[in-house]
Amino acid sequence: MSSPRIHRHTLGLSRRELLQVGYSGLFGLGLPTLLAQQACAKATSSETTRPGVKRARSVILIFLTGAPSHLDMFDLKPEAAAEVRGSFQPIATRTPGMDVCEHLPRLAALSDKYAVIRSMTHGLPSHEHATHMLLTGINKMPVGSTHMASRSDWPCYASTLDYLRPRHDGIPNGVMLPTYLNNGYGFSGQDAGFLGARYDPWHIKQDPNDPKFRIENLSLPVGMTVDALAQRRELLARFNAQSEGIDRARPVAEFNSYQDQAMTILTASAIGRAFAIDQEPAAVRDSYGRHQFGQSLLLARRLMEAGVPIVQANMGSMNNWDTHNSNFTQLKDRLLPPLDQGVSALLEDLGSSGLLEETLVVMVGEFGRTPKIGGNVGTPSYVPDGRDHWAGVFFALLAGAGVRGGQVLGSSDNIAAFPASSPFYPADLGATIFASLGIDPHRIIKDRLGRPMSANEGELIAQLFSGAASA
What are the pLDDT digits (tens) for 95-152? Predict the structure, then answer.
């Protein structure tokens, strides 16, 4: 039996459309038409920020694909038995009583900038299903969805935002990078699902740390200069002027405005400039780390500055944090150093520029790892030095946009197996993301058949903003 075809996403200048229409759109075909079609979509109502929640301009979602070990990062249990606590030691942070792993020294020094939730939970310890839940903010699978991406899936945050708050300036509402999570098939939760392909976010599938990193479709075609494009624009204007004598109807005037917009996107694209990561000062690039994860976070910051409201940066390819084997060696040598460097650089960078106040940073995986080292004894996943899948409890880290740093919300039991207080679910995290962006999480969205449903069923995690931490 052959593997299912990978669900591939394309990158376009205005979402996917540039790839669909090509540069022939410059003579009044394709891209202007699509822009005009987009303009027909309007938000159904205005949004207001929830009381006590600071309105965020952007969300940077750092997704630790594969599920990191909460026990070995932000919820250590030094008093537990050796087969539970592992070999890592806790270290003090800037916040009294808030310890983290010894291999996260930079983040330890910045604990006043972020809050940690130690009681995230759900009931599906499979990568595909849990990824779907965490990237869309749902607690149960939609009817018709499976472990593979389909148009029965719930839409990701960026797609819901695009549906509720469409824009027409060529800047996407969401970008995911630097990989599309797939296992021979696309993981659910990465696109617009039942809303339809028109609301899919951009997917960047190149490594920003590669010296040859370049988003081809945000550059002019080979041999086409900005001057030549301007000449083509002048020719187009003359053509339009002649056609006005034939038909002065309003649709023609509106169509011309979309031609102008299409040309502006091509010649002066803020998005195009954002992807020019090689223009960033070398010292800044070094501070994030010359590795895929660090440069992905730097690119996320640049895209946010260019106006993209939701940027998701995956740490590595699919299941990068799936430490069934050599859990402690992989964390110490391969995973924690770039995370510590990249995330701390992002928080410092946003903080020094003042952008942290208007940017919600969320770091989370799809679940945690088994409390007992070796995972589930007697199962095919058992490896003596690894940790298996565990959805009973895991962590999330949030910063910026009014989140009060230096606090821990919720707690796990004495072996970090289940919440001991204040359980929070994927839908609650989703409600918090939407509320931070000024969107009522319970807004009604409709699928392609016009069936209405609530965008989110969770509750805002208000303690993040009020500082009413739970022990």
Answer: 999 999 999 999 999 999 999 999 999 999 999 999 999 999 999 999 999 999 999 9
> Mean pLDDT in the chain?
84
The pair phi, psi for residue 453, each rounded to 5°, is: -160, 160
Give the per-residue pLDDT at 33: 43
Same domain, 238 and 387: no
Helix (H, G, I), strand (E, B) or coil at 299: helix
3 state SS of 436: helix
Q: Encoding tokens for residue 32?
A: 């202007």
Residue whose structure tokens are 């009044």: 28
> What residue numbers bound the domain in which 280 lies?
44-215+275-466
pTM of the model: 0.82
Total structural domains in the chain?
2
CB 189 within 8 A of CB 65: no
**The domain that contains 63 carries what CATH number?**
3.40.720.10
Those residues with Cβ within 8 angstroms of residue 212's Cβ, 6 or more apart along the chain or in another chain: none
Does residue 367 lie in a domain region? yes
Could you tell me which residue, 243 or 86, shows the higher pLDDT?
A: 86
In a domain, 471, yes or no: no
Tokens representing residue 176 in the block = 């995911």
Question: Cα(152)–Cα(161) distance, rounded to whole angstroms?
Answer: 18
Distance CA 380, CA 273 (A): 48
Read off the tokens for 381. 């996943």
- Residues 417-439 have a mean pLDDT of 98
Q: Is the pLDDT of residue 28 over 60?
A: no
Residues in the chain: 471
251 and 112 co-located in one domain:
no
User: Are 84 and 185 found together in one domain?
Assistant: yes
- Name the one residue in this structure whose structure tokens are 């699928």: 447
- Please tell me whether residues 57 and 87 are part of one structural domain: yes
Q: Are strands 444-446 and 368-369 parallel, antiparallel or unpaired?
A: unpaired
For residue 359, give the H/E element and its range. Answer: strand 359-365
Domain assignment present for residue 87? The answer is yes
Q: Are residues 237 and 90 in the same domain?
A: no
Task: Please tell me the predicted confidence (pLDDT) of residue 237.
Answer: 58
Percentage of residues of the chain with pLDDT beyond 90 = 69
d(CA 173, CA 186): 21
